[in-house]
Amino acid sequence: MLKIGDKEFKSRLFTGTGKFSDNATMKAALEASESELVTVALKRVDTDNEDDDILRHLGHERINLLPNTSGVRDAKEAVFVAQLAREALGTNWVKLEIHPDPKYLMPDPIETLKATEELAKLGFIVLPYIHADPVLCKRLEDAGTSAVMPLGAPIGSNRGLRTQDFLEIIVEQSNVPVVVDAGIGAPSDAAKAMELGADAVLVNTAIAVSPNPVEMGVAFKMAVEAGRMAYEAKLAQAKNFAEASSPLTGFLDEL
């Protein structure tokens, strides 16, 4: 069981809601994935409409909403959007995304730290999306973050765990849950992240743009479970030289 803030999760697969062809497909894929934490951009929510279409499709009793601040450019805008989300959706959880560069969508570490400090003081459960920067992760812990969300590769790139060396350091020294976010393009990437000791992964594009999002949701669910199981069972040590699994000598000498 994974615990973040005041909630516990059976599933360690978190999902996003962007890029699906339609809301019905999104709903079916998310239910098939059995994800219990789903991020949604506040700008996609019609806060004046109680029957907002995307919220209606996310109304499953198992699903917890994680509003994100996608589109903001600095800490001031992020805090404002988080407060709007708390009022509109009735949750103090927020995925903090501050990426002023529209081409590469790289998270701004300085503004992210400033916003985390402010939001934590305001009582938010903050999950910041960041570079795979071990020093920043420790600073965010000091600022009161509830988890860290280092990227595996640029958002939507499907390039996998390009930051693996740094993710390993983050996992080794973190005192809060580590959720690998962005870049995960295949279930094998998710399994690898879990084998490294990540507490969860967040996947969006790889499921949403699949020709069969429902089947892909199931594939990611199984990959996350397998990766976590392997981590808990402890992986065998990698070696530089061959080592036979069966004796090579002995019985021939007796002939």
From TrEMBL:
The active site is at K95. Residues 3-247 form the Thiazole synthase ThiG domain. It catalyses: [ThiS sulfur-carrier protein]-C-terminal-Gly-aminoethanethioate + 2-iminoacetate + 1-deoxy-D-xylulose 5-phosphate = [ThiS sulfur-carrier protein]-C-terminal Gly-Gly + 2-[(2R,5Z)-2-carboxy-4-methylthiazol-5(2H)-ylidene]ethyl phosphate + 2 H2O + H(+). It holds the Pfam family ThiG. It is an enzyme of class 2 (transferase). Keywords: Cytoplasm, Plasmid, Schiff base, Thiamine biosynthesis, Transferase. Its EC number is 2.8.1.10. One of its GO terms (cellular component) is cytoplasm. GO terms for molecular function: thiazole synthase activity. SUPFAM superfamilies: ThiG-like. It is found in: Cytoplasm. GO terms for biological process: thiamine diphosphate biosynthetic process. 1-deoxy-D-xylulose 5-phosphate binds at G156, A182, G183, N204, T205. Its main location: cytoplasm. Pathway: Cofactor biosynthesis; thiamine diphosphate biosynthesis. The keyword Metal-binding does not apply. The keyword Cell membrane does not apply. Coiled coil: none annotated. Belongs to the ThiG family. Homotetramer. Forms heterodimers with either ThiH or ThiS. Catalyzes the rearrangement of 1-deoxy-D-xylulose 5-phosphate (DXP) to produce the thiazole phosphate moiety of thiamine. Sulfur is provided by the thiocarboxylate moiety of the carrier protein ThiS. In vitro, sulfur can be provided by H(2)S. PANTHER family: THIAZOLE SYNTHASE. This is Thiazole synthase. It comes from Fulvitalea axinellae.
